Amino acid sequence: MKLKASSTLVKPLSLLVIVLAAVVFVSGQKPAPATDELQPGGANVIQPEELVKIMQSSSGQKPVVLYVGPPVFYMQAHIRGAANVGPAARPEGLEKLRARVAKLAKNQLVVIYCGCCPWTHCPNIHPAYQELRKMGFSNVRALYLETSFGTNWADKGYPVEKGE
Amino acid sequence: MRKVALTVAIAVLVFAVFFVRLHRVTRVSGRPAAAKTAPVAPAAPQILLSDLTGNSFNTSSYQGKVVLVNFWAAWCTPCAAEIPQFVAMQEKYRQQGLQILGVSMDDADDVLRKFYREYKMNYPVVAGDQKIADAYGGVLGLPTTFVIGRDGRVEDKIVGSTDFQKLEQEVAALLGVAAR
């Protein structure tokens, strides 16, 4: 009788634990940036010199380069050929991002970059990366700009252009 | 009894996955970018600006002072973290001739005004744009701070997080006072 009572208690309690754990797990994912997927040196992160080589190479798949930061920096200087999507930290930026990639093949190499502020504090790169992955893009890479676009790209003499 | 054991096992598994996930997220730590200096333009631009209260002024009126022009944004975490230190520095060296100017980049007006009040900013802040950034030779990342001497020449450009100890020494030297 005692055993039966404890058995009947354990089952609903265990189910409750499962549900609670699942809720915490799912809610815990939301605010967590995809920093574990965007570690410098990781497969989903591309170094500036590597991107330059890919862009200058006559062979291989050409990347679609998307700028996901505030327009005021893009207007001053941006990677040659990069499209201005806008800050991915804002809903309108994510909307523009979705619209910009809507017609691309899901295996297209897409390089996103920002460089508005130091990499570890960039509010745009992670939302942009997560959105593209959520949309099913399998070949997304974030450009590693440790300090800023100016320091880690423009000042190094890599190709830039100004304006819209 | 087997059902109970199975349920408990599933619960343990879910917790295990949760903790692995949690560990993977929390072990990632952000290393703050070190302050870096870059070559600077010889003379600071003299431009007409309008601060948050609507007051117009020309940066030429700062001639004879040591000026820090801090490009920042309320949405930029390392920028926001620096503001209290700029406020303290302004307070500390105002009488000796230090003038700080904040140039906010891509902040919504209401957000900027709220931030200004909350942080009790004690120096002028203007809403920045491409024109102002271009006047300073381009600002391609935040925070960026220009250090301008009494003669109006740009002495330093700090890109990334500021080393305030070093900056204070630099400012004190330009002011001709001992760092306190």
Pairing-aware structural class of the strands and helices of chain B? alpha/beta
Work out the strand percent of chain B.
15-25%
Mean pLDDT across the residues of chain A is: 86
Taking the sheet with the most strands of chain B, its summary is: 6 strands, mixed
What is the C-level CATH assignment of the largest domain in chain A? Alpha Beta
Label the overall shape of chain B: globular
* Count of the separate structural domains of chain A: 2
How much of the sequence of chain A is in beta strands?
Answer: 5-15%
Strand order of the largest sheet of chain B: 1-8-7-4-5-6
Q: Of all protein chain pairs, which has the greatest interface, and how many residues does each chain bring to it? A: A-B, 43 and 46 residues
User: Would you identify the CATH H-level superfamily of the largest domain in chain A?
Assistant: Rhodanese-like domain
CATH architecture annotation name of the largest domain in chain A: 3-Layer(aba) Sandwich
Quaternary organisation: heterodimer
Number of strands of chain A: 7
Query: What is the makeup of the main sheet of chain A?
Result: 5 strands, parallel
Helical coverage of chain A, percent range: 40-55%
Mean of the pLDDT scores of chain B?
85
Give start-end ranges of low-pLDDT stretches of chain A: 19-34
Protein described:
The complex is a heterodimer of chains A (164) and B (180). Chain A has 164 residues and is an alpha/beta fold. Chain A folds into 2 domains: 1-30; 34-161, Rhodanese-like domain (Oxidized Rhodanese, domain 1). Chain A has 6 helices and 7 strands, in the order αβαβαββαβαβαβ. Chain A has helices at residues 2-29, 48-56, 71-76, 91-101, 125-134, 149-152, and strands spanning 45-46, 64-67, 78-79, 83-84, 110-113, 140-143, 160-161. In chain A, the strands form 2 sheets. Chain A has a 5-stranded parallel sheet with strand order 1-6-5-2-4. In chain A, strands 3-7 form a two-stranded antiparallel ribbon. In chain A, strand 5 (110-113), helix 5 (125-134) and strand 6 (140-143) form a beta-alpha-beta unit. Chain A is globular, with a radius of gyration of 21 Å. Chain A starts with a helix and ends with a strand. The model of chain A is unreliable at 19-34 (pLDDT under 50). Chain B is an alpha/beta fold. Chain B is 39% helix and 20% strand. In chain B, the strands form 2 sheets. A 6-stranded mixed sheet of chain B has the order 1-8-7-4-5-6. Chain B is globular. Mean pLDDT of chain B is 85; it is low at 13-36. At the A-B interface, helix 1, helix 3 and helix 6 of A face helix 1, helix 2 and helix 4 of B.
